[in-house]
Amino acid sequence: MAEKLVIDKCKHFYWCDVESKAGKRLKKLMQRQIRVCERADDYAKKYGATEYEPPVQFYDGGIDYLLFGNKKPDPRVWRKRLDDAEGNGIYEPNCMVRSDILVLPDDRFHPSDTWNKTYGKDHLTWPMVKGQKSLAQWAAIIGYRLTDDKEQDAAAVELTLHNKTFVAFLEYFGAEPCKSKADAPQWLRKAIKAEKDRVALPVITVEEVFALLECDVPKEDPERSAFLYNMVTPIFFVHRDKFYIGSQCPCLVEGLHDSNKEKFIYHYNVSNREYDISN
């Protein structure tokens, strides 16, 4: 039913040989799908879950919530988020996460992850992070006392930070503050480890799929973000030596041939029947 609803929204249909430029890209995407789904499966198995709910904002991969079947997880480690349609509890690690920016003392330095912090891999410049905090917040970070002159204050902050290097990080914490790992109860350390593992799961973004198929979408924000928000992600499947693609917007990648909805559905149904018979 879900597949039919998506197909009904598609306006453009294509096919391509698996060895064409488009086909090779789609093969690589399928291989990535297998890997990211395996990582999610391994995470669920590691923490004793029977099922999981993937995030809806990604094309594939990742985990939002875990289901533990008839087993009730430790409520100190796992927080019940809500019940699913069948009345089963779905859970997430019982800790909180905040994102922040660290000013590095030297662009050759990069902090190492700790038990409750995960640092981004990339060094960031002042123009990249400037808009993520208010003038007052940046002033507090560098120990600058604000005056009544906003232009003077902005110039002083700019002068101090314009040539600095920054790194983004995530901090994990519980309801009660802990000064160190030794102060944190074991259940909180377990919850933080589960959340760090969950956040680290690889995903495939919707943007990547649009880029792979060279979809004809607006190039600049905010038009691009608004357009993609209302779009259905292109769908595809492989049948014998061809890929079949359905999309709500035109796809321009080399190797695609125009098709139609009827042929797409026909090959989709035949592919599913052949798969059922072989299994």
Tell me what the structure shows.
- The chain has 279 residues and is an alpha+beta fold.
- It has nine helices and 13 strands.
- The strands form five sheets. Strands 11-12-1-13 form a four-stranded antiparallel β-sheet, sandwiched between helices. Strands 7-9-8 form a three-stranded antiparallel β-sheet. A two-stranded antiparallel ribbon has the order 2-4.
- The longest helix has 26 residues, at 21-46.
- The protein starts with a helix and ends with a helix.
Q: Spell out the helices and strands N to C.
A: HEHEEEEEEEHHHEHEHHEEEH
Order of strands, main sheet, comes to 11-12-1-13
What is the residue-mean pLDDT, rounded to a whole number? 93
Principal-axes shape call: globular
Based on secondary structure, the structural category is: alpha+beta
Q: Would you count the extended β strands for me?
A: 13
Label this structure with key terms.
three-stranded antiparallel β-sheet; 9 helices; four-stranded antiparallel β-sheet
Write the layout of secondary structure elements.
Elements: H1 2-9, E1 12-17, H2 21-46, E2 51-53, E3 58-61, E4 65-67, E5 78-83, E6 89-93, E7 96-104, E8 117-119, H3 126-129, H4 135-142, H5 150-161, E9 165-173, H6 186-199, E10 203-205, H7 206-212, H8 223-229, E11 235-239, E12 242-247, E13 257-258, H9 261-278
Antiparallel strand pairs: 1-12, 1-13, 2-4, 3-10, 5-6, 7-9, 8-9, 11-12
